[in-house]
Specification:
- This protein is about 50% helix and about 15% strand.
- The chain is of the alpha/beta class and about 325 residues long.
- It has 2 domains: about 5-55; about 60-310, 2-enoyl-CoA Hydratase, Chain A, domain 1 (Alpha-Beta Complex), CATH 3.90.226.10.
- Strands 1, 2, 3, 4, 5, 6, 7 and 8 form an 8-stranded mixed β-sheet that branches.
- A hairpin with a 2-residue loop joins strand 2 (about 100-105) and strand 3.
- It is globular and about 65 Å long.
- The termini are far apart.
Length: about 325
């Protein structure tokens, strides 16, 4: 499989290529080079551990939007059974930037709602690069209410650079659509578990990010603005994106320390973008534990704890 590599992953790519070339050379010449391949493989494992273990905030931001990183629809067949996608906001259109549907998840009926980016140019355009318009958020809202009506827990998957800022979105009430979702999710009478699987961009992410638990994958980010956007505003130069990332502290580790998220979901050694199957298994285990915990709570306790959790966000001692 042909992988994409970021600039700071380049040493891994070079060593991987060397191992592959050496393996192919040995097969063709009938030469036993197993020891050399093993030595390089061990060296590669140490390099991977070093690079990912010491990744800077700016590098983690790059990983959160890695071109090979799994999207919502990549995880669906790996984590859910009998997924049935539901379409449309019943008012204007079906926004491809948000996907919704009913599914079975480890013995539970669930409503799945998540952002969806595209792989090739055609799909990126159809999905609007994962940036929803108001009809996308109103579609999600319809699914939240449907889940509440049939007492089905909601699992949301966040991965967007932000809500679409175009004039067409503003004309159709982008801010109202986001605000309405925040209001409804805060009082939804079923368990809601939100998971950041890539970029968590501003209100575009928050519109499906209010719930009883907020989880983040290890190499995901959640911030009010991208480092590039922040640098363009503060320094008037996107070249300062690395400095902006350090100031924003958008990583899962940062937000866990600030008390803004509830758990970090570990990723495979080289990240979810190298092993989606293992990433799905790790995420599924955490979601199962979290969902079982929430389903065991009486409704009044669930809503009371959700309100307390939301009110405590951003609190501090003077």
């Amino acid at each position: 499989m042909a992988y994409s590599y970021l600039e700071f992953e380049r040493p891994i790519a070079e060593l991987t290529s060397k191992i592959e070339d050496l393996s192919n050379m040995g097969k063709g010449a009938g030469v036993n080079i197993a020891e050399e391949v093993e030595r390089l493989s061990i060296k590669r494992d140490k390099l991977v551990e070093q690079i990912y273990g010491k990744a800077t905030r700016a590098q983690i931001c790059q990983l959160s939007r890695h071109p090979d990183r799994p999207y919502t629809l990549d995880y669906v067949p790996l984590m859910f059974d009998e997924f049935q996608e539901l379409h449309g906001d019943r008012a204007l259109a079906d926004d491809g930037a948000i996907v919704c549907g009913l599914a079975h998840f480890r013995g539970h009926e669930v409503m799945v709602v998540g952002h969806q980016k595209g792989r090739d140019t055609k799909e990126k355009i159809r999905r609007n690069f994962g940036m929803p318009r108001p009809e996308g958020y109103r579609k999600a809202l319809r699914m939240f209410r449907l889940a509440e009506r049939f007492e089905i827990p909601v699992l949301t998957f966040i991965d967007t650079a932000g809500a679409w800022p175009g004039i067409d979105a503003e004309e159709r009430g982008q801010s109202e659509a986001i605000a309405r979702n925040l209001q409804v999710l805060a009082g939804l009478k079923v368990p809601v578990v939100c998971t950041v699987i890539g970029e968590g961009g501003s209100g575009g992410a928050l519109a499906i990010g209010v719930g009883d638990r907020l989880l983040m994958q290890q190499f995901s980010t959640y911030s009010v603005i991208s480092p590039e956007g922040c640098a363009a505003i503060l320094w008037r130069d996107r070249a300062f994106a690395d400095e902006a990332a350090e100031a924003l502290k958008p990583t899962a580790k940062d937000l866990m320390q600030l008390g803004l998220i509830d758990a970090i979901i570990p990723e495979p050694r080289e990240g979810a973008h190298r092993n989606p199957e293992a990433a799905a298994e790790l995420m599924g285990d955490v979601l199962e534990t979290t969902l079982n915990e929430l389903l065991g709570k009486p409704l009044d306790e669930l809503l009371r704890e959700r309100e307390k959790r939301l009110r405590n966000l951003g609190s501090f001692d003077a």
